[in-house]
Amino acid sequence: MARIGLPSYLDFANWCQQGIRVAPKFTLPDGVKVAVIPKHPDLNLTDIVGRGGVQWFRANNVADSAKLRWMESKEMFPGFNPGGERPGRQKTPQQWVDVANSMPLFAAEIDEFLEGEANIDTQDSQYTSFKQARKAKYQAGGVSDPEIYLCYGALILYGARGWKVDGVYQGPLGTYYRNLYSSQSAARNTMPGYFNVHEGTSLPNVKYYPEGPATAPEFYEKLHEMEVMMKGLNIANPRCAYVSSQLIESLPDTIPDNRPGWDTHILIYQGRQVGTAGKVTAQAHPDWDWDQQLAMYLIIGLMTGKRVIAWDDTSQYGTDPVTIYQSQPGDFHITYWSSPNGTPPPYGNPGYPPLRLTWYEAIYAACHIYKQFERTAGQNWQYLKFRVGDGPWIEPQADGSDVLFAAANSRGIAKGRFYQGAYDFVYYNPSKPKDRTGYETITVEFSNGQQYTRTCQGRVVNPFAE
């Protein structure tokens, strides 16, 4: 089989979702699960289940058995108090329990109760009571180990935070970070607020929302965070969701410090020519490198955490490229139309996506690749011994802290597993460029001595099934 390619249906000129509509149906190995948001109203919400291995969907009309329920605190108690505040914070724990008990069971659920005008902290009694009630309801319904996830990006979850400890830079090989791999208790000590309160009720997650355009080195940080989360979990079926989207939060130094808070959502202009009629331009968040997204979904989400949850809103778009999307009230992106001959804007109902949705294809491509690893299903992914060219062999660390050394030395990582003559491995170096100067000839060696030599491109995930 050798190198695993991208799905044959993938078309980067098409801004619409593709895999959700045309990918073959299959089940991912190792119990891996993935959640996405259907973005086109003409999608058959029954037919999409299982396409590309994706089983969970954030959509109102999808069956509860396939639904990712993304919860906001303002939904739990709609409306406003007389003073204009959202009422959730003033509700008692029992009132939150009553809401929890009124909801059905879902395939998976996650919340953003920490965000917005009705924010509830994960340590508040309202929050913990709600989560405990949800867990009890699943168990009463025969689901002993439900997919209930803690608030995405909750502050009590572990973060490497630029390799700083108490604001002081230590670097990835600092004693603090090295020690986290020494034992499960060391990993657990990074998150007492999670492990002492939420473990056994809510599963953790690693959120990635890039702060700026220099995203490549952050691969190391996020993989490290996922490894620490997984090492600390003391449950029968450990898993941790990688939660991410295609957007960069802000571009430092591109706009004045006195900018209004919302303008981090409208930092770039992304244009598309609509035949000969004119050009539509969307003002929105910038997006980040597709190949890096694929690498992170595959290595961090599927191979390490066993869960991926796409982070996006539920806006709906058409599929006809000669139409454009009309901005809606509350949209963070704003569309503009210009025509050399005065053609009126060809609004669709709804119109074509104002921004590329091909980031979803990075998720489906990651699933496509992971499916090819089925022959070695059930085996643990291990860091491999490898070398670049005729250079020295890089031995795997006994404690599994290889990513720290890779980060400190700006080098790649090799992970693999084997079973009954089948060998699967992945090499990824985010520190090398994609152009010809970033190609490396690497040789990997498995624990039984089996070696493979392959040419790998920089900043692109290189998966192999031998």
Secondary structure elements and their pairing?
Layout lengths: L1 E2 L15 H4 L10 E4 L19 E2 L10 E4 L1 H4 L16 H10 L5 E4 L13 H16 L23 E2 L2 E2 L5 H5 L4 H5 L3 H4 L9 E4 L9 H15 L7 E5 L23 E7 L3 E7 L5 H16 E5 L23 E5 L20 H13 L10 E2 L1 E4 L13 H7 L4 E7 L2 E7 L11 E6 L5 E6 L5 E4 L1
Helix pairs in contact: 3-4, 8-9, 8-11, 9-10
Give an account of the 3D structure:
With 466 residues, the protein is α/β, with parallel strands linked by helices. The chain has three domains: 2-247 and 289-320 and 352-374, TIM Barrel; 249-286 and 321-351, no CATH class; 382-465, no CATH class. 21% of the residues lie in helices and 19% in strands. Helix 8 (218-232) runs parallel beside helix 9 (290-305), helix 8 (218-232) packs antiparallel against helix 11 (402-408) and helix 9 crosses helix 10 (359-371). The radius of gyration is 23 Å and the shape is globular.
Can you describe this structure in just a few lines?
By secondary structure, this protein is α/β, with parallel strands linked by helices. Helix content is 21%, strand content 19%.
CATH fold assignment of the largest domain: TIM Barrel
Strand tally is 20
By CATH, the architecture of the largest domain is named Alpha-Beta Barrel
Please, what is the average pLDDT? 93
Task: Considering the chains and any ligands shown, give keywords for the structure.
466 residues; alpha/beta; TIM Barrel; five-stranded antiparallel sheet; five-stranded parallel sheet; 11 helices
